[in-house]
Amino acid sequence: MQIKSLHESRSTQEIGEERISNQDEAALVRAAVDDPDAFAELYWCYLPRVYRYVYSRVGEKHAAEDLSALIFGAVWEGLPNYRERGSFTSWIFRITRNKVNDYFRRKRADIPLEQVSAAAAGESDPHAWLEKNETLGKLAGMLKGLDEQQRELLRLRFAAELTYVEMAKVLNRSEGAVKMALRRLLDSLKEAWEVSDE
Description:
Elements lengths: L2 H6 L13 H11 L3 H23 L2 H18 L9 H20 L18 H19 L3 H12 L4 H8 L3 H23 L1
């Protein structure tokens, strides 16, 4: 299957942030094993979240696009072996994390999370741009102080927009442990932010 050509055939406005119900998702996954059109629906449904997560890790548009294509190629190849024991979203993000980790093993470079903001650049108002850059610089300093596990919690929750249940499955932790870790992390970031404002 030609994932890149499939991606290029759709305009940016057509790539939705659609979420499908678990029941519809299960039926679509079963159909996607033999039906490229059903796989295309899964692709368009998950592409934005997978791409954001990948970009948050690699920080480079072309590398994120290439990795996203590899990820969906692996998903396509793995579909016949997928068993509905957990969430399909968790399964995709385990593949995604593994492919990104493989990329870094080969590349031996890690892009800081704060560079994700470069993708959103393009402010037309110079004052807004300066304020935004100041805020991002402050945030970048705080993120540098986090360990990899803490940054991964933030990526999965905010770049990939996973639920706590999905995060728990991806991280092989309990939902309660994930909620507690993320809550503590966000509280400490909020506290550090407020202290730095004083």
